[in-house]
Amino acid sequence: MELPIRIRVRRGRADADRRRAAWPDGWPEEGLVAVSTHGDVGRGLEGLAKISGRISGAIESVIEGKPDVVRLALTVLLAEGHLLIEDVPGVGKTMLAKALARSIDCSVRRIQFTPDLLPSDITGVSAYNQERREFEFKPGPVFANIVVGDEINRASPKTQSALLECMEERQVTVDGHTYGLDGPFMVIATQNPVEMEGTYPLPEAQRDRFTARISMGYPAPGAELEMLDVHGRTSPLEDLSPVARAGDVRELIELVRNVHVSTSVRNYAIALVTATREHPELRLGASPRATLHLVRAARAYAALEDRDYVLPDDLQYLAGPVLAHRLLPTAEAQVERRLPEHVVAELVAHVPVPDPRR
Amino acid sequence: MRLRLTIVACVATLLGTVGLYPLYESGGWFGTGCGAILVVGVAGALTRRFRVAAALCPLIGLAALFLYLTVRFAAGQALLAVVPTPSSTARLGRLLGEGWHDANAYAAPVPMLPAINMLTSTGIGLVAVLIDFLAVRARRAALAGLPLLAIYSVPAAVRQQTAGWLAFLLSAGGYLGLLVSDARDQLAGWGRAVFTARWSAAVPAGERPDSSPLAAAGRRIGLAAVAVAIVLPFAVPGIEPRGLLGIGGNGGSGSGKGSGSITGLDALNPLVSVRRQLVREGDAEVLKYRTTDGGAPDYLRMYSLDRFNGETWSIGPLRAGQDGRVADKELPAEPGTAAIPARAVTTNISIDSRVHGLDVLPMPYPPTKVNIKGDWRVDPRSLTVFSTHDSAGGRSYTVTSIRPEPTYQELVTEAAPPDSITSRYLAVPDSVGDDVAKLAAQLTAGASTPYEQAVKLQDWFTKPGNFTYSLTTPPPRRGNALRDFLFTSRTGYCEQFASSMAVLARILGIPARVGMGYTAGTQQSNGEWLVRTKDAHAWPELYFTGVGWLRFEPTPGGDGGQGSATVPSYTAPQLLPGAPGSDPETQLPTTGSGSGSAQSSAPTVPRHRTDTLADSRAAPGAVPESHTSQLPVTWLLIGLVVVLLLLTPVTLRALTRARRWRRAKTDVAVAHAAWDELRADAADHRLRWPASETPRATGRRLTETLALEGAAAEALTRLARAEERARYAPSTERLATPREDVRLLRAALRARASRRVRWRARLFPPSATMSLRSAGTRIMDVFEWLDVATPRRRRPT
Questions:
Q1: Residues B423 and B572 in one domain
Q2: Which residues form the Transglutaminase-like domain (chain B) (predicted)?
Q3: Which of B64, B116, B313, B349 has the most crowded Cβ, counting Cβ within 10 A?
């Protein structure tokens, strides 16, 4: 069968090993293996539940006791969005990103953002091929299905902005040539909010392109204990084998697009976003893109909840992760230590829920 | 310039003057008053524009007013029709003097003469100057209420009746508007109001500080105060005789408001006013008089109660036209009194100066001429002389009256009374009952003429042993007091006797009414007659064709009765000239104190009993049913209304529930109906239901707070799911047992609620009163709009 990615970048050896470990007899033929998911996808939401259950199961075998975070990550994946994971060091940000990437059989590239990273290190360069006497495009790490950007705020804004085009338009333009990116395409970036020395905070435009920002939080004591037991012996990430294919994910995304969003729920999304624009404690409200992302994420979340329609509950749940990182508090609010998250929670608690009859 | 406040002050003044309307015959004063207010307002605004010293502001206002009056009333004498000259000023002064004279000479409503108009404009203008100065210049809006109150109380002082509730509403509204407006400006000086309980919408920079939430509270208080002021007097009898439940009063008789006639006292209840007077005075002196009527003068009548509703005798509206003044002319003649022999009697009456609020003159009936100072008018039908703004206290007046001396033949005539009499004085409601009619027939068996029937009735009442005179009669708790008096207790005092006889007479076809006033009183050693409050009395007056109204006396007199009551001589047929078997030697009826001068001289006449209850009971002409059986009915009505009011929410709730289920045809509608019902139940049990909560979240919260388990929890989940699907999903699911689910949850709600809440939900469900409350909120919104609409368009300078 054809591999799901058109531009194949060099796969690391580890990938091949991993695949071999999972499928010792070679890549299974269609219909022969249990992991084949095409049938599941064909069965609509049930299939989606099955596949998403497998993916989240795989991730949760690595990240202990964080089902909500895993679910949000999956939501973003199915909403064709990008994920920003923001938390203190050592809580498993990179682990989550890698686990998600690995549980899906697709191309994964990891970029370690450093201060001296250049935009061409991300997008790729045109190099002169002496044999053929012409310039040849060498694709950068962004040409992958899942791009893990570690410590994204350590690179200079110049480098960060190399991601702008590919994140929004799913294409890369180098030397006047535009190269399309294959779906699914997802950027999972991590950043550390505490250690600010030598970092460059993400510009608004960049933040606005991330569908959601989540933070991991410390694990519960029990989960931490289990983690000690498991991680003490082996690395579960190494044992992780893909449980879904890129094609499956594409079909799931297609499925999610068909989730019903009633007019009143759409109006509710607009009401929520509008409220952020009018709130006195915010200098910058959410953009129309935020509305789009919110509804898209709500569709994915509803699908993950085994529903073919979106509820205001979905929007309420997702408002914080989807909207908060785009908002800029006023100076007064900052002095009062009012975080955008608080404002969003307040709005959710005050904006009336839509009732089509009223 | 404080333009806004100036305008509000002008409007408040204007609204305050609306209450003056009862004083004038036409509305011409309003235009000139408006002009005065406008001129004063403009002058005030200009003084503020040019920053004139505060002390000069009222002077400038007065000057502007003067200018305005000159232009309006003395343009001909003024230079260029504007500049005041000595002659124009003199004309104004003359007009003012004339106006003052006219105002004193005429009773309200006065005709719209230029002088009156001028006086009114001057008064309104002065008030406007004062209000403009106080409210706008001195920023003491609250104080501006005093001139407003002054102008509002003018009609009350002149006509002894307040202006209508609408006028009050307008005045109060104007004053409240002034207060609100002033408070807004004051608050604005302090910058933006800070709200903590609710997050407020963004206030764009440069906009006026938003004080509306605070103002809303103020408006609410103001509205409540005005509402209480209007509604409360209706519910409290006695304070305002026009009250909704006024006893015996004649609330519905305000029909005589045509031009040229006034309706004075139309609802004044003689009972209330005179009883109040009695209670205040104790057994005090009411009046003294000298009469040419010899030793047995007639009673001094005040009112004639001509309406009987089955329970109560009451007085119809007293009316007198412009030509109704009694001064220096003959009173209209009583219908049908021309033919009989009569002698003229002159009585000089002096009312004690301590008597207050006596606006009807006690005098012998029928009067032909009254000499009294002040504006007194006569109601031509009852010959009652009354005033709408004068009190008789301390006055002396001379009355010429007729003392009829009919012969027997004249009395026993069978001619039918004129229609004008029968149409008014014969009505007996059906509620009186057949047994009373039977009694009347039985009592008068054998009497062939109305006169003989009347005499038989009087004899029956006054026959010793038949009835007991007592002031301490307990009022019957229920049932018809008339029947109680006639058949059961047979105990009462003048009220019962008089009204019962009048009713029986009407049943027999004799026109009858109840007269009210004082007995002749007691004669002093100097020949003067003294009437005290204990001489207050009520008696029946019967009409005989060709003779007119004659007083009868069914109440026992003397020691065991009404002390100074006398039986008129014409009620003893055997004593009348021309009567069959008339014998001048026959003694007078035993119960009467006779007409001999020796008998009625002061020391021999027994005094009225001084019972502790006398003050409250022995009001003159007080009518028996009024405070005996009227009260239970009133209370029953009140109870009924209260019960109905209490039942309204429950009924509303049940109706809403039934309608909700009935209208739910589709699955979606059923889901909505079930959810709405649950919501209403939650509201009844005082559970909050925020608008920002989704059905699912509500379900979760209720499950937690109510600690639902098992079937109830499942029912709630079902309802919530159905509702959210109905709202947001393309397809909905069918609720199998929506009503049972709702019922189950209601039971759960009830189980968790406290006893108080439970009963409240059962008897007075808040969900049913929500619509009322929302209506109230909507009214408030109108106020809000009125208040906010102007500043929204204006930008601060």
A1: yes
A2: 486-556
A3: B313
